[in-house]
Every structure is written in C-alpha cells, then in structure tokens.
Amino acid sequence: MNKECIKSANWHLTTRCNYACKFCFIKNLDSEIMDLKCAEEILVKLKDIGIEKINFVGGEPLMHPLLFEITKISKDLGFVVSLVSNGYFLNRKSIYKLSSFVDWIGLSVDSSYERVEVALGRGNGNHIKHVLEISDIIHEAGLKLKINTTVTRLNYAEDMRSLLMNLKPERWKILQILHIKGQNDPYFGDLSITDREFDYFISLNQDNAIIGEGKQVFERNNDMIDSYFMLSPGGNVMSNRNGNYSLVPFNGINKQDIMQTMSRSKYVKRGSVYAW
Ligand code: SF4
Which of 35, 124, 189, 225 is deepest in the core (most CB within 10 A)? Predict the structure, then answer.
C-alpha cells in the first residue's frame, strides 16, 4: 500500500441526526443525494482517482434512506467500506444486514459516564449500555470495530481505558473538539480544551495494553485541519482549511485538484493509511 497517496475518503452522507451533540461539526451543509445513480457516479469517480476505502459518516449515516444500497454499491465496486454511527439504529438485524457490504463500523463514545454523554447531547442516558451491547454483535458478525471519542471540557480528565477494554475495538480514534465556523459556534467556548488538556487526556489513556500497539490514534486540532478528503452530503469536495467548510464541485476533479483542498503530507502524517 503506497502511503504517499490519498487512499481514503469520508463521505458525510447526511446532516440528519437523532442526537444533538453540542460539539457536532456537521450540521449545516448542502442537501443529500437521494438518487442512487448519482451516488454511484460519485463512487465510481472515487474509485477512478485511487480511493480504496470509503467511510460513510454523517450526521447519522443510518438516517440516509439509501444507506444500505449505497454501501452495497461501494462493496461491489471493490472499496473497503466503513461507516461511523452513533449506534442508535444498530441492532442484531441491521448489523448482520450491513455485514455483507461493510468491513468496519465506527461507534462514537466520549465517556464511561452516561451523565457526560447526556450533557454533551449524545443520547438520553442509554448510549454507553447500548454501545456495549452492539459492539459484541459487531464482533460476532465478523466486522471490525472502531471507536471515536471526542475530547472536550467534560471528559478531558477521564480515564476511559476500562470501557475500551470491554469494547475491544480494532482502532480507537481520539479527537480534540474542533471548532468549525457555522457548525458548532454556540457551544465551542464552553466545551473547548487547550492542547495541554488534550495531552492530559492522552497521558491518562495512552496504553498499548488496552487494544494493542499502534491502535490508538490521537488527533489534535492541527492534525484534523486540512488532512481529510471529505465529501459533503451533495457529493461536493469539502475543505476545512480556513476554519469553516468550503465546497468544491466534485465533477471533473482529478488527483491534482484534491491536493488543492487538503494537504497530502498532513494526511500521511496523521496515519490515514493503515492495514484496513
Ligand atoms: S451523533 Fe454524530 S452526527 Fe449526531 S449530533 Fe452527535 S456528533 Fe453530530
């Protein structure tokens, strides 16, 4: 696997979500694609420019009415297929259905305490219990599990290792809360943390013994800016280079154009290409 090329893309299929996380930076974007043919054209184009792994994110991707069909098309085109969900709509039936087309499921969990999740807007008090239940089913169905944790003022002093040992993910991605103008302005001031506070979270949680060496990925604000190849719900290329989102039409884009929306060196540096 050539680590110098952009090999993965995040497609924010929808901004719809049943949760209301205060730090969420995908709230105001263009309209989602509701036509399978259009979705397929975008996926074919991604394949043509060398993308190997497609990660469907949101919003809550399971709220997109065509999610199952789009993951199937992706699998048929030969992508490694991943989705990141808050888990609410996942159960034994939906996980097994997805397992035919999806290789990875990412679940978002920010704390071992329901009261913290509720205060963040992540669910109504049953989030962690549910994630523990469905993580077992994800393993049982033979899918790889990733956990995403956003570190804010409410959890930066928390040791989450015990929860993670129970979840047993293949990968644990830990993200410093990121301000994106026009998306999460109202709450950012109360929830933001300094780099030192993020380092404190790392000092409490960095431990190869939890899930294995090299499987924890810590991303500071600076690592997250300019380092993702992202598509908007409407299939446009998104850049967060200037602290907000700017959209570039995907039509006619080539590898060179992608490099104008993001930094290849930052993409490589944050460990974006791994054994998926
Ligand atoms: S679950 Fe995800 S998409 Fe939904 S509000 Fe929270 S961060 Fe945003």
Answer: 225
Neighbours of 184 (CB within 10 A): 21
Q: What does the angle CA 102 – CA 105 – CA 111 come to, to the nearest 5 degrees?
A: 175
Atom number of ligand 1 nearest to Cα 58: 3
Domains and CATH numbers, the chain: 8-269 (3.20.20.70)
Q: Are strands 8-12 and 104-108 parallel, antiparallel or unpaired?
A: unpaired
- Listing from the earlier edge strand, what are the strands of the sheet with 216-219? 216-219, 171-176, 144-151, 104-108, 80-85, 53-57, 8-12, 230-231, 237-239, 246-248
Residue 20 makes CB contacts below 8 A (sequence gap 6+) with 121
The pTM for the full model equals 0.94
Share of the chain above pLDDT 90, in %: 86
Q: What DSSP designation does 150 have?
A: E
Q: One-letter amino acid identity for 153?
A: R
Q: Which residues of the chain have pLDDT under 50?
A: 1
